[in-house]
Fold this protein.
Amino acid sequence: MADPHELYTFLLRVGDDNLILAQRLGELVSWMPELEEDIAVANVALDHLGQARNVLTYAARMAGPDASEDTLAMERSEREFLNAVLVEQPNGDFGQTMARQLFVDAYQVPFYEALATSSDDTVAGIAAKAVKEARYHLARSSNWVVVLGDGTDESHQRMQAGIDAMWRYTADLFFTDETEEALQQAGILPSFDNIRGTFDDTVSSVLARGLLALPEDPYQRIGGRTGFHTEHLGHLLPDMQALHRANAGASW
Amino acid sequence: MTRTEVDPQARFDEIIEAGEKVEPRDWMPEAYRKTMIRQIAQHAHSEVIGQQPEGNWITRAPSLARKAILIAKVQDEAGHGLYLYSAAETLGVSRHELNEMLHSGRQKYSSIFNYPTLSWADIGAIGWLVDGAAITNQVMLTRTSYGPYSRAMIRICKEESFHQRQGYEIMLALVNGTEQQKAIAQDAFERWWWPSLAMFGPPDDQSTHTEQSQAWGIKLETNDELRQKFVDMTVPQADYLGLTVPDPELRYDEDSGHYHFGEIDWDDFWQVVKGNGPCNRERIAHKTKAWDDGAWVREAALAHAAKQANNSKGAEK
Ligand SMILES: [Fe+2]
Ligand SMILES: [Fe+2]
């Protein structure tokens, strides 16, 4: 039998990925190159926020009677967030935003597909809904990466720069430890063995279509899943949490 | 005589007279077309610029539920901009031309968005008051004489009533909250009240467009009539919230069945219209920066589409 704490930790890893990415995407509304993209980025932000809320609400049930999606989102500090470092990276230009999104989407599609087979009905249900959203996100980000890679010299260079800048944070998405292992042994989580292969196939086919390449530099920065973040998260959190924290116990 | 032989002006007058809709294929006086373009474009620009003051609180919303509602609202506003630009395009202008006119200041957007959002309560006040005022105006516009504009308004009005209710709910939560929450609710209400009344435009005796617009069936009620409607609707809501209307002259007039309210500071209004409001520069700077920063993306999309078209032509040969 797995410890409820392990499921809680796993749920924070999933929920925080989505919450922090939604937060980054929320910064972009009204800043996009066309009105259609303002609408699209809001859509994707809402999907990730919705996934975060579902997962954190479930996690809150394991965190005591006073816990809620909001206490988890607003009252944890930097070292307690367990998102992969990729999602906390700044938006940069549209190329960097799309590189980050492609990597997240290429990961989330097979991840949620696997998770939808969890023996935990709540987890499986959340994942089954999320996978549909992730497929739509992947179609959009793949399309933009190809368009920008193929478009003009400038867009090609910018898209390649975005890929180069974001690639080093991708391994963190796949980090697992004894938490997942225990849940897998208990039969709660499925195996995640095939996710990385599917991700690599997706990414290389999209990059090939966009005439783009992965960077040579093999360095990968990991640590987000255990609370060892890049410095960016420490700026994102106060912005997100200040109002809530300044009004302890208030309802909104 | 067949319809095509009818004097086009007479046919246009007939449509207006009968309260029917003017459609893009119909002949219309050049001045009508120009007025329609100006009005629809200004409305579209307002929706788009309106993303900014509210977008300002997306990252800082105090709960995840409020954050989701706010993102969806700002997204709706962008969608309204899109419908309205499409309606304007039926009159023979392109969205990008209109965009240029906004950036260069030749076309305007609603002055209400030149005020800053300084606390979370401003998000409630905007939804409740600004969307509320917009609905009052737009319900009238669902019956406006230009078909595509009228139909866009029908779609938009439904969403605006959601926004208004959501704004009111934010205020309701605040006035039932802590002392500090009550204080920001009252403060936001005081800052947004007068600018919301000014949204209906100058008083009827000073309004330059009203008469012709009424004759053309574009505007079916006057600025002052709409403003009165809004005040009559909103004051009881403020009472229910326990908020004090910042107007010492406000009183209910038993005889007329309307609220009497004080004089709007029109000097301030015209200052803001002329560009000297608290956020005029920031709003246009934000908009033009987003547009300029996105130039390479739009160019890339065009270049890619051209390459695709070329490739498929090559494949056909
Ligand atoms: Fe709107
Ligand atoms: Fe609205």
Chain A has a mean pLDDT of 97. Residues 121-150 of chain A form the longest helix (30 residues). Residues B 47, 77, 80, 156, 160 surround fe (ii) ion (ligand 1) (CB under 6 Å). Chain A has nine helices and no strands.
